[in-house]
User: Fold Alginate export family protein from Sphingomonas naasensis.
Amino acid sequence: MREALVLSDAPVLARRGRICCCLIAALRRRARRAPIKRDQFLLFPEHAVISTFPSPALRGALIGLCATAALPAHAQSSGKDDKGVVFSIDATTRARGEVIDGQFRPGVPADDAFVSFRTTVAAKAELGPIAVGGEIVDARGYGQRAGSSVRTSEVNALEPVQAYVAYRASDAFAKGATATVTGGRFALDIGSSRLVSRTDFPNTVQSYLGGMIDWRSKGKDRVVAFWSKPFSTLPDTVADIEDNKIQLDRAGGNLTFFGASAMAAKAFGNISAEAYGYRLAEDDRTTRLTRNRHLVTAGLRLRRAPAKGAFDFEGEGAWQWGTARATTAASDVRDLDVRAGFTHVEAGWTAPRGWTPRVSAMFDYGSGDGRDAGSYGRFDSLFGARRADFGPNGLYGPVGRSNLISPGVRLEAKPSKRLDLMAAVRGLWLAQATDSFASTSVRDRNGASGRHAGTQFEARARRWLVPERLRLEVGGAWLAKGRFLETAPNAPATGDTHYGYVDLAASF
Assistant:
């Protein structure tokens, strides 16, 4: 959290109250100059993270939040706790522009452009070991072509992605350790984030309704267990996404996700070890057909973190089994045996001086579905992130952890405290020639188009314009298509794919 307000600190509260009142007054003046419709919600970056709320209920919530921060101590604390209530707010806003040509996906425009805005506001009140928190994410986008690939990962207007109550116990099972029990709606990020993550490059946030226990030792060991009903992001129709319609996400009774992870920070000297297991169970509901996945995913991970003048490595592998159907069609009622898996291996070295460049080699494998009609072999990455391993998402994102064989190399450098650079290249092949390649939806059911999908080149530069407050990010990717992406039956004849983006992100 960026700032914390202790409610016994009257001068700070008075200043915070004056700031909130000034923000509200500024919003009212802006609204009078540029009236907006009642069903719209516009973001004004010049007013930091506060946005114009046309709904009376939302305006009231904003005023109430500011008023709470400005209340005197005796109105917030019963006096039974000498430490008082600690109220904290963390907020971010990000604007992004991205363009693509030579589209690799079938059935969407060959070139596209998209401008998106994401604002997050998280608040938490703590009274001793008890905390009550919440977070709102407003993700909107504009300018995409009709039939664009933009979907729910980029647009989710005014969504309360977290609303929870938590209890934290100190010295739990070990001196200096903490155990936090959380109930309500929350986000999850576990281990490498390859299977359970709070993604950052996409605009929206996956959240869960349920309970979680998170134990952390003084030495950074961690054990986390959870049971949840994942939320499905809404709206999910093309028309509503284009309109940035405000529609609350849904946690349906037909989807359950639970599991546990245990990580020892120094299992073998300076090498950490993690073991995990997750269970996903879904069934059709009247408004949404599914593949009726009933999957168990178990995995192991070893990692030696990068350090100056030292070699590092990471190895992670997971095995997945259970049942699933080949399609979401109502007529598809055959449950197939699932046997799938993924592997990530990476090794690198970091120079001790100067720009401290790190050179690394990596290899990724994700199983695909073969010709056996009685089984299903395509790996399901559950709720994992792709950005760190496979490049930017958004309008891009051809590479995923399914039906993939991909070796690559990466170079990272940090010329200064404010600037970091990265460049990477990957070869791309299909694990199974008859399955769709990674995240492209391009497929040759006969396997006649070969296995070489192409080569991906990626580069990124990030600079803190204001340290820890305002950051500029510029990046791009070039997908040099191979035989498969050029000749498969549904591959678009658009040439190589070129993608670029620019981000401006602020934290408060």
Observations:
- The longest helix spans residues 10-33.
- Residues 460 and 475 are 4 Å apart (CA to CA).
- DSSP finds six helices and 20 strands in the chain.
